[in-house]
Amino acid sequence: MALAKELITRLLAGAAVLWAAASLAFIVLQLLPSDPVQVIYGADSTVTPEMRDRIRADFGLDQPLWQQYAGFVSRTVTGDLGTSYQQRRTVVSIITSELGSTITLASLAVLLAFSMAVLATLATAGRDNWLRRVISSLELVSVSTPAFWIGLLLLTFFSFQWPIFPVVGDQGWKSLVLPVATLGIALFGTLSQVMRNEMDQALEQPFALTARTRGLSLWAVRWRHALRHALIPALTIAAETFGALLAGAIITEQVFGRPGLGRITLQAVRNQDIPVVLGVVLFSAFIFVTINIIVDLLYRVVDPRLRARA
Amino acid sequence: MTNLSIELGGAGKAAGRLRRGRVPFGVALAGLIIAFMAVCAVAPGFVAPYDPYAPDLLASLKPPSPAHIFGTDQLGRDIFSRVVHGASYSLYIGLCATALAVAAGIVIGLSAGVAGGFIDLALMRVIDVLLAFPGLLMSMAVVAFLGTGVTNILIAIAIASIPGYARIVRAQVMVVRTSGYVEAARVLGQPPMRTLLRHILPNTVGPLIVLSTLGIGSAILQSAALSYLGLGPKAPTPEWGLMLAEGQGYLRRGWWVGIFPGVFATATIISTTVLGRYIKALTDGRA
Amino acid sequence: MALLEVRDLSIRFVGHSHDEDVQAVRGLSFSLDAGECVAIVGESGSGKSATARALVGLAGDNALVEGSVSLGGRELLKLSQRDWLGVRGRNIGFVLQDALVSLDPLRKIGREVAETIERHRLLPRGEIKGRVVELLTQVGMSDAESRLGAYAHQLSGGLRQRALIASALSGDPSLLIADEPTTALDMVVQAQILKLLNGMKQAGKALLLISHDLAVVAELADRIIVMRDGEAVESGTPMQIFSDPQHDYTRALLAAIPSARTRGLSLVTGSGGGESGDVSLVPRVPVLEVGEVVRTFGKRAAVDDVSLTVVAGETLGIVGASGSGKTTLARLIMGLEAPDSGSVTLKGADWSALHERQRRPLRHLVQLVSQDPMSAFDPRFTVERILDEALEARGFERAGWAERRLALLRSVGLSEMHLGRRPRQLSGGQRQRVAIARALAMEPEILVCDEPVSALDVSTQAQVLDLLLDLKRRLGLTIVFVSHDLGVVQHVSDRVVVMNEGRIVEEGAVEEVLASPRHEYTRALLAAQPRLPERMAG
After folding, report:
1. Residue numbers in chain A where pLDDT is lower than 50
2. pLDDT at C335 over 90
3. Which of C363, C368, C378 is the closest to B181 by Cβ?
4. Which of residues 26-55 of A touch B (CB under 8 A)?
5. Which residues of A touch C105 (CB under 8 A)?
6. Is the pLDDT of residue B65 over 50?
7. At C503, phi and psi to the nearest 5?
8. CB nearest to C116's CB, from A214, A224, A304
9. Chain C residues with CB-CB distance to A206 below 8 A
10. Stretch C237-255: mean pLDDT
11. What is the pTM of this model?
């Protein structure tokens, strides 16, 4: 019962955030200095004023402001994110057609980054030795190196110097290796730092000492006790990780010339195709809110102390 | 951004390892790198041997040699001279964007935390909404409206980082407000305004300024990424991200085109992060 | 040969350089047999916990342990890391303090208790659950089966500690080491846990008890070793230690324990502290009245219909277990918390009903000394600025501050060399002195002390209590003294109020209440108070 109540509160809060995001997007649209028709046809002087008016009507730009707002919000709620100025397709169809490729890339990259982070954490938490210094330096490099440069380096060495993987395109698993590595390496540092920091703290807690007095080896304490503690902050930054993933995907797709959400976003930004930009922004806000709701529920599975608080 | 919220809690181990009176080797090295980058940014002509814009098509894509220690690019320009000139863009954007974002973050976070009630609720909900957008996407969206260019990506990066700083300030205000020493000031009968200026403000802003040194690296990272995506300055500006984007097509014929601008960018970002963490560890140890 | 033989044990923590090395324990020897209890008693930094950890090979990576520890004839200090794993849990059980953090908060109690059995493969899988229930029942946990799925935070402090003891017993070790097993517990629960440990001893376990509290170990230990700065200064039976202590330190430690008998005496010197200031001779002028005050948090009434009067010049002790509402009551008196109903009046005038703006000019009348002075100081401030803030608030002329600062520091036993220090650079006792000096700077009439000594070692506690009583006599302060420690309250108070679950259950002069308690809860509290065997005469 308490759980259902909690869930409803979360859903309502999430809906409020999305509504606010949509309103913000609408305000931004209104503040836009450029005339949409100008963006669509550029400086094409053959477009007559009548044609311009028709286009304005097509996009609903001739209605009063509050009607535009109501229409915008209600369309957004029903999942209609408008029509691209450039492509004459709905924003939703553009996003969904490109989504699969990005999801493949992103999920493989998360898997890679998470596995590396768990291994690094298990191997180095609570210790002060050469391995820890090496791994924490790698993390520092990972969080400080621009993702596109990691991609370029991988390309330079594994496509040009030693032609193991294809340079660009979307041709089977081989063309996925370098993009996944790029994105995975970029994510690894943050995840690993957060998890190890938490595991360090967990291992200094008295319960870790208690576990050792039961005859558990240091490894067993890490694996059976501390790892679970380290997963909590990994959950906390899950939504932020999603943001980093999307940002990383934009860059990775650009480096490796892959199709995907990132590529259409970049295109839209370059062409000032505002409906697509806002569509992607709202879509990412939707995912962010959804992830946060799931994370809040998962917390209770991982951390029993939170169940009592409801 | 992501890193900041982590740094806020972390660094316990690092602080423990710090020893009195001796600067660790890595920190000293980072300091030297930043000093070098600063010289490059302020007086690039002093360091760079060639004109970064002068093409020499006869000498295009030459590997590193004593005459061109980082080699030449597709137009025969000296890569070393170009990366040296590039430092000013990154440092300028990194410093200014962070300063802008921190200032706005302090104003918003402090107003929310001190005012409380409805103002707090409203401001924090807006911040929540803004935090729902990934940083890079948000700066890209801002660029979509403002157009490309150095100033515009500076503003875009600043806007995208404000919510993170505002939330940290507000959280810190909450901690300080309920602290024992603010209560002690109340027991002494100190008026609230004096307590705000004397205890809450310094104990909130101090840690944030330290934390913002870490944010500079993240802002430089973003500016390089935006430039790489073609949203920053236009060719032939010697900006690191842009140089890498332009050179990408020539990687097959010359690896050095894709190496050195990245080395400079990464070295700068790592160094600011190392220095930032060191400063934070020092102040954590003292405060 | 005894079960456990410790010979010439030395523990050295190796730092980065030679002068950072710390010699934690030097040349410690003792033996312990089955069915026997040895207690190691000392203040923080005495090396008692390092000793306990070294006995299970967990003193730390930077610890250099020398000497000999043999358990059942087997030399432990020469064991490989691998062999140690077989000894821990199986031959030696270990109980740490504060089970809330000593049990993994993310795992169920049943799994925590079963861990030793699983690790050492003592039972087939199917029989483990039954054994865990048996163990939990054995340590006095009723309804053990239904509690297997509980997490540490869902159990009371006492039940948690029992679960932790069950976990230490689960490998059926011959030696049980308990490091401050009752420190985090209320007095009544502490008595129960001590009884449980005594049962273990009767059942034939060898028990090594580590504690900072001489009184706690008195009833349980067959021999007591008093440690100071890594060395055993004295050892003997409780009778020898308490009735005829040989070493000055032991004597000082014993004298420092506050109780009904130490009233009016200095805990540091043992002598009379001058005029004891008999309150019955002072005209009874009420300065503070609490009338039918109720304060609820959520659904729970933290303070439930409490009325009391504080008379000028007296020390009123408020005693109760954690959660009894005593701290909330102190905050209500301070005007830091507003009552839901009822009122607090100060010198016959409204206090709780005032608007904060009206209360501010009167705040100097009531000052606070809290349990944790560290958090009560702005970490950026030096002692000088801390005192200046109070002098400024009281409205003293800036020209006289320097003189007043010095006078204040001297009155709490500090000197001008402390002016430039930050809270972090002071010891716990010094910090509490600064907190008292700050309160005195306001020239208060009432000093509210909320657990002012519970974070301090016995000898530091003695100094701070002496200081408070000395100030009271010199300045004619009225003190409201909140504590969970009956001994401390008995030592300092003229009158006492006993609180339980938000209500006052008993009230009166200390001698009367404690000699003939009327309420059941007071009787339980008194019965739980650890008693020293016959003390030295005088």
Report:
1. 309-310
2. yes
3. C378
4. 28, 31-33
5. 207, 303-305
6. yes
7. -115, 155
8. A214
9. 96-98, 101-102
10. 89
11. 0.82
Q: Is the Cβ pair C151, A304 closer than 8 Å?
A: yes
Give the tens place of pLDDT for each residue, B222-279.
999 999 998 989 888 999 999 999 988 888 888 888 899 999 999 999 999 999 888 8
Q: For residue C312, give both structure tokens.
A: 């000028």
Q: Enumerate the residues of chain B whose CB falls inside 8 A of the CB of residue A35.
A: none
Strand segments, DSSP code E, in C169-272 are 175-179, 206-211, 223-228, 231-236
Q: Which of A146, A160, A270 is facing B225, going by the closest CB pair?
A: A146
User: What does DSSP say about strands C231-236 and C446-450: parallel, antiparallel, or unpaired?
Assistant: unpaired
How distant is the Cα of B190 from the closest Cα of chain C, in angstroms?
6
* Residue C537 binned pLDDT confidence (cut-offs 50, 70, 90): very low
pLDDT tens per residue across span C259-290? 877 887 888 877 765 545 555 555 678 999 99
Q: Using 50, 70 and 90 to split pLDDT, how confident is the model at C173? A: very high
CB contact under 8 A, A206 and C154: no
Domains of chain C are 1-91+175-184+206-256 (3.40.50.300), 100-172 (no CATH), 286-528 (3.40.50.300)
**A214 contacts C115? CB cut-off 8 A:** yes
A143 and chain B in contact, CB less than 8 A: yes
Asked if residue C42 lies in contact with residue C226, where contact means CB atoms within 8 angstroms, the answer is yes
Dist. CA B171–CA B167, nearest whole Å: 6
Note the pLDDT tens digit of each residue in C193-235: 999 999 999 999 999 999 988 888 888 999 999 999 999 999 9
What DSSP string describes chain B? -HHHHHHHH--HHHHHH--TT---HHHHHHHHHHHHHHHHHH-HHHH-SS-TT---GGGTTPPP-SSSTT-B-TT--BHHHHHHHHHHHHHHHHHHHHHHHHHHHHHHHHHHHHH-HHHHHHHHHHHHHHHTS-HHHHHHHHHHHH-SSHHHHHHHHHHHHHHHHHHHHHHHHHHHHTSHHHHHHHHTT--HHHHIIIIIHHHHHHHHHHHHHHHHHHHHHHHHHHHHTT-SSPTT---HHHHHHHHGGGTTT-GGGGTHHHHHHHHHHHHHHHHHHHHHHHHHHH-
> Does C336 touch chain B if contact means CB atoms closer than 8 Å?
yes
Residues of chain C neighbouring B189 (CB-CB closer than 8 A): 360-364, 393, 442
Predicted pLDDT of residue C167: 94
